[in-house]
Amino acid sequence: MKSNSIIFNQQRISIEDVTAIARKEVSIELDKSSNYRQNIARGSEFLDQLLREDGAIYGVTTGYGDSCTVEVPADLVEQLPRQLYTFHGCGLGNVLDAKAGRAVLVSRLASLSKGYSGVSVELLEQLTLLLQKDIIPVIPEEGSVGASGDLTPLSYVAAVLCGERDVWYNGERRKTCDVFNELSITPHRLRPKEGLALMNGTAVMTALACLAFERTAYLSKLATRITALNVIASHGNAHHFDKILFDVKPHPGQQRVAARLREDLHAGEPPRNPNRLQDRYSLRCAPHIIGVIEDSLDWWRMMIENELNSANDNPIIDAEGEHVLHGGHFYGGHIAAVMDSMKTAVANIADLLDRQLAQLVDTKFNDGLPANLSGAKGARTAINHGFKAVQIGASAWTAEALKQTMPASVFSRSTECHNQDKVSMGTIAARDCLRVLQLTEQVTAAVLMAACQGVELRLELSGADPLSGGLLETYQSLREISPALGEDRALESELRQLIAAIQTQQLPIYGR
Fold first, then answer.
1. C-alpha to C-alpha distance for 411 and 401, rounded to whole angstroms
2. Is the pLDDT assigned to residue 292 strictly greater than 60?
3. DSSP symbol at 441
4. Domain boundaries in the chain?
5. What is the mean pLDDT of residues 416-430?
6. Could you report the per-residue pLDDT of 2-32, keeping only the tens digit for each?
């Protein structure tokens, strides 16, 4: 990270900025310069001017959505923003954890701080304060169709700014009003359009996409490292990743994966199993499968970061040109496309690793390793079953991940009296992607444990040199969590610890 603090203004922020703030690794500030603050103030002042001149402004002097034809009496205009977040307080399902909630606040602040939403400096300061004090809205996951933005989940952000509903604070779920009273924070009073500006955007889906991107990028490298371990355990052929071979198929991400495998396996040595010229696809084609992620990362990043750095509510307020521009920037189609693509690529990693594991435990395919990778000795082998149940579990998690890959974006529903007659489903796609990631990380943990067991057994059988370099680092990190499996033991606790280590990127891989 370039500094210990990230300043919000009209400058771009990155996925890494969002995730670092979400993990509480950096602090944030709102730009204090007079030029920036004057620019923000011009938007709300322009709206005030229009109101004084009796201008009709969508969501300010009219109802919302299909109710835009309903004129709001002048004496009720100030109450309209609170009505908006109140009637949207119907979210259901699980709630986002504090990390995801922070990412949502960052995403919304990034958009509103661009200066095209007609909000006040005070609103941006209140959003900033929530992040600085780590007061995080409790946001239900379900209820958004991804256009007109993440209305229902973002209503919980608007309500918290005004001192209502619940927050995560110091690891507990508490009433916002109680936390505000303790910290002497004055609830914000929403100005005209501020409720709409907060809620009518893509902040939830974009925040979740940032978190998914980071996890996917790490998973790609970890799956490559596990593949290298499985090549050793399976007595595989390192020549499958030869540089000359991959130079003739110029997908750069695929080539990166092959280069990482060469680094781990020292390709160029004789095949490890001279009796088998070609390994099965789950080893031989690993660069072609993992490489899809590596080659997609750049365009996923472009789409996510463009959305993150956009003004994505409606209407857009051009204070300098004195325009109120009605459009559809709340539409989450780009995030939906990324999430639908990402979850498919990630699920393919689960399927790849599951196939590698199936080979490793099966004496028909594992070239002499004990059945189910059991480490038991002598007569005890008859009652020990090693990784048999873990392989069944990995198969179950893989099946569920694959089942989740149906694209959400094609399931548009006409809502809100057919005003929102074509919607993105971007938030559902993002939630699906995170579920696929969770399941794939479970598979990854299981296969990493089995791969390290397989490597130990292979080295014991062959008398080959021990691991070195990055392979050794990953192996040692795994062994700190999960010792070698001799006699059968319940592995749930170790699997959970390893999944947590994967999700917090604690395992060293390729320069990390």
1. 19
2. yes
3. H
4. 5-201, 209-312+331-503
5. 90
6. 458 999 999 999 999 999 999 999 999 999 9
Fold for the domain defined by 5-201: Fumarase C; Chain B, domain 1 (1.10.275)
Q: How far is CA 153 from CA 15, 140, 143, 403, in A?
A: 21, 6, 7, 26
The rounded distance, in Å, linking the Cα atoms of 71 and 62 is 5
Q: Which amino acid is at 32?
A: K
Q: Which CATH architecture has domain 209-312+331-503?
A: Up-down Bundle (1.20)
Residue-wise DSSP of 195-253: HHHHHSS-HHHHHHHHHHHHHHHHHHHHHHHHHHHHHHHTT--GGGG-HHHHHTS--HH
Categorise residue 115: left if φ over 0, alpha if ψ from -120 to 50, beta otherwise.
left
Q: Please give the Cα distance from 227 to 283 (Å, whole number).
A: 7
- For the question of whether the overall pTM of this predicted structure is more than 0.85, the answer is yes
Q: Helix, strand, coil proportions of the chain in percent (round to 5)?
A: 60, 5, 35
Q: Mean pLDDT across the stretch 91-112?
A: 98
User: Smallest Cα–Cα separation from 19: which of 247, 213, 241?
Assistant: 213
- Assess contact for 334 and 306: CB atoms under 8 A: yes
Tokens for 150? 């993440």
User: Where on the phi/psi map is residue 482: left (φ > 0), alpha (ψ -120 to 50), or beta?
Assistant: beta
Tell me 11's DSSP state.
S
- Cα-Cα-Cα-Cα torsion 274, 279, 283, 287, nearest 10 degrees, comes to 100
Q: Please say if 58 is a catalytic residue.
A: yes
3-state DSSP assignment of residue 308: helix
Task: Phi first, then psi: give them for residue 97, nearest 5 degrees.
Answer: -75, 175
- Give the model's pLDDT for residue 267: 66
Q: Which two tokens stand for residue 285?
A: 């084609």
Question: What is the CB-side half-sphere exposure of residue 115 using CA atoms within 13 A?
Answer: 19
- Which of 36, 58, 218, 475 does the annotation list as catalytic? 58
Calpha distance 452→262 (Å, rounded): 18
